[in-house]
C-alpha cells in the first residue's frame, strides 16, 4: 500500500533536513569550537558596532588573514546574513590587502602577527577594525584582541582606538569585553 502524498512529502522534507544538517556538520568540524567562537564574535563585531555613514554603502567586507578555519566557518555560517542593509563578503586573505578594498574588519591570526605593522600602515586612515588573537596585540595597535581566559574565549578592546577610527563600540560589545 502506498503512503498518502502528505506523508510522503513529510518524510522527504524530514530526510532533506537531516541530510542538510549532516552536510553542514561535515563542512565545519565540531572540534574547532575556538574558530566557531571567533567567527561568531567577528559577526557580532560587524553587527553590533556603529560604523561611520560613509562605510554603510556597498558590501560589508571582512578579511581573514591566516586562519582558514575561521574563514570557512565565518563564510558558511554568516556569509549570507546582512549587516544592516549591506551584504556580508568574507574574504580569505593570502597577503596584506591594500587600502583600496574598503575592509570593515580584518582579523589577523597569531600565525601572521608579523603582518600587523603592515596592516596598520595600510589602513591607518580607514575605519577598519583590526582584530587579533595574541598577547600584547592591543599595545601593538590592534583594536580588539581575543584572549583565552580559563578555557573561555573572551576579548579585550581599545575603545579609544576604535573611536579614533570613527567606529563606536556597541553596548553589547562593551558589555562582553574584558574590563
Q: What can you see in these coordinates?
A:
There is one protein chain. This protein has 179 residues and is of the alpha/beta class. The protein folds into two domains: 1-30; 32-176, Rossmann fold (3-Layer(aba) Sandwich), CATH 3.40.50. It is 39% helix and 21% strand. The chain has helices at 5-27, 33-48, 68-78, 116-122, 159-164, 171-176; strands at residues 60-65, 82-83, 86-93, 103-108, 129-132, 144-149, 152-157. The chain has a seven-stranded mixed β-sheet with strand order 2-3-1-4-5-6-7, with helices on both faces. It is globular, with a radius of gyration of 19 Å. The chain starts with a helix and ends with a helix.
Oligomer: single chain
Determine the N-to-C terminus distance: 67 Å
What would you report as the Rg, rounded to the nearest angstrom?
19 Å
Largest sheet: 7 strands, mixed
Helices and strands, in N-to-C order? HHEHEEEHEEEHH
Q: What structural class do helix, strand and pairing data support?
A: alpha/beta
What spatial order of strands do you see in the largest sheet? 2-3-1-4-5-6-7
Q: What is the average of the pLDDT values?
A: 87
The gist of it:
The chain is of the alpha/beta class and 179 residues long.
What features would you highlight for this structure?
2 domains; alpha/beta; 179 residues; 7-stranded mixed beta sheet
Secondary structure layout:
Blueprint: H1 5-27, H2 33-48, E1 60-65, H3 68-78, E2 82-83, E3 86-93, E4 103-108, H4 116-122, E5 129-132, E6 144-149, E7 152-157, H5 159-164, H6 171-176
Parallel strand pairs: 1-3, 1-4, 4-5, 5-6
Antiparallel strand pairs: 2-3, 6-7
Amino acid at each position: 500500500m502506498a503512503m498518502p502524498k502528505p506523508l510522503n512529502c513529510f518524510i522527504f522534507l524530514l530526510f532533506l533536513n537531516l541530510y542538510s544538517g549532516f552536510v553542514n556538520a561535515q563542512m565545519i568540524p565540531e572540534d574547532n569550537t575556538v574558530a566557531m567562537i571567533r567567527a561568531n564574535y567577528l559577526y557580532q563585531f560587524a553587527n553590533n558596532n556603529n560604523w561611520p555613514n560613509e562605510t554603510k554603502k556597498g558590501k560589508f567586507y571582512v578579511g581573514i588573514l591566516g586562519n582558514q578555519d575561521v574563514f570557512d566557518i565565518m563564510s558558511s555560517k554568516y556569509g549570507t546574513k546582512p549587516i544592516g542593509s549591506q551584504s556580508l563578503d568574507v574574504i580569505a586573505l593570502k597577503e596584506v590587502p591594500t587600502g583600496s578594498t574598503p575592509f570593515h574588519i580584518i582579523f589577523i591570526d597569531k600565525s601572521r602577527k608579523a603582518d600587523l605593522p603592515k596592516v596598520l600602515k595600510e589602513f591607518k586612515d580607514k575605519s577598519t577594525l583590526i582584530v587579533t588573537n595574541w598577547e600584547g596585540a592591543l599595545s601593538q595597535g590592534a583594536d580588539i584582541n581575543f584572549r583565552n581566559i580559563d578555557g573561555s574565549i573572551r576579548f579585550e578592546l581599545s575603545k579609544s582606538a576604535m573611536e579614533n577610527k570613527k567606529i563606536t563600540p556597541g553596548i553589547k560589545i562593551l558589555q562582553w569585553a574584558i574590563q
